[in-house]
Amino acid sequence: MMEWTSLSFEEISAIFVKAGQPSFRAKQLTEWLYKKAVLDPADMTNFSGDLKNLLKELGSFSVLKREKLQESEDGETLKFLWKLHDGALLESVLICSDKRRTVCVSSQVGCPARCAFCASGKMGLKRNLSTAEIVEQVLQIESYLLEQGESVNHIVYMGMGEPLENFDSVVKSLRILTDPKLFGLSQRHITLSTVGVIEGIRKLSQESFKINLALSLHAPNQHIRKKIIPYARKYDFDELMTAVDEYKEATGRDITYEYTLIAGINDQPEHAEELAKLLQFKHCTVNLIPYNPVSGLNLEKPTRPDISAFRDILDDYEINHTCRYTKGDDIAAACGQLALQEVLP
Question: The pTM is what?
Fold first, then answer.
């Protein structure tokens, strides 16, 4: 059955017209869905009973069922566990920092990338998410926030899955979430993270978006990268860097390079210097992420002195960088930790 939250405003309008309904119904429905985050027709108070029944006959609402909500000890990170129509499980995260309310959305159930430091990859890929399953992660969390007088103001495609391996659904979700007639979030407040799918990066640069791109680099060269990122065996390092440069040229958006620091593998001074020389003349930001421990992975978090030494070298080369403060690790919601630890009956 068609999913209402997978449709553009124009598609919704056409459905109402075909059903013999006035065109203004499209605006009414999208206001309920995207401005008020109401996903149950029973709560759409300006619709008649007959119209509510028609809406349910034409398409489905609320494709995610919330099974569990976990809150970190500091109250700044919440992890949502959803159950999908086929029984598959999905996680997304809400990160609260100052006035920012960032939703970390998933694009797949599991992940095909199998990065050495990431829990999601241990699951392998189960399936792609539909457009509605991506969009409703945002809408259901928006509904949660609206009850507290707050609202989603940033979205990152950094949850489970490789977004560019689910290109069509991800692009459709981006159109819905940025359309002023629908959710209407600024493209500058959306970041898509990729492990480096070159053809996907190039296709995305040909779309009309100005969203931020984050490359999961995690190594200063191809030799080390292939050890921790299996996808690197498929994609040439220099060609990947060129594709990212082309994205910046096409969109005007600076690139973020994500770099997970793993003790003894990519966190030493020689690695920092090689990374600095690689990025020295690029307008970019390096997001350093000290490795978040994952059960069953024989990797270690770098020491604070090693992290400081790494950062000092980037400073010496005037590389703009941040070091991500670990949020949500106590509920396995930090970067690299989403792995569906709960098994529901």
Answer: 0.92
